[in-house]
Amino acid sequence: CGHGIGEFFHCSPNIPHYAGNKAKFTMKVGHCFTIEPMINMGSWKDTHWPDCWTAVTKDGLPSAQFEHTMVVTENGIENLTARLPTSPPLWWEVPEDSPLPAGPATASEDARVKPADTKSVEID
Question: PANTHER family, from UniProt (predicted)?
Answer without folding.
Answer: METHIONINE AMINOPEPTIDASE, METHIONINE AMINOPEPTIDASE 1
